[in-house]
């Protein structure tokens, strides 16, 4: 019995689970009734990163999958940082923002980094596998 995984489906599902689902949880709480979810704070940069990632993964003509996928993760991380630094947390100091941040925000950052590692290792492995299968011209 063999199990065959589709790389693109696996990376798409893991992107959804690691990068999108965590944004649905509360990220910041500055008071009793002002909990804000990540998806409310991310804005168009998150959407740009997601579209760039899906383009890199599913485009037939994309030759720079690793570069575009890494760039997409970077854009999403920048969106995370912008949401951290623009969240109104009382006095605008770094420690107040740390106090307002929920564990789900930090878990989201860790999951984004974990998905980047998964993406890079998977794409590097598939690239090496394809290079081994490709016939080399005889000299």
Helices and strands in order:
Layout lengths: L6 H14 L5 E4 L5 E3 H5 L1 H15 L6 H22 L7 H7 L2 H31 L6
Antiparallel strand pairs: 1-2
Protein described:
This protein is mainly α and 139 residues long. The protein is built from 6 helices and 2 strands. The protein has a two-stranded antiparallel sheet. A hairpin with a 5-residue loop joins strand 1 and strand 2 (35-37). The longest helix is centred in the last third of the chain and has 31 residues, at 103-133. The chain is elongated, with a radius of gyration of 19 Å. It starts with 6 loop residues before the first helix and ends in a 6-residue tail after the last helix.
Q: In total, how many beta strands?
A: 2
Label the structural class: mainly alpha
Shape field: elongated
| Beta-strand residue fraction | 5-15%
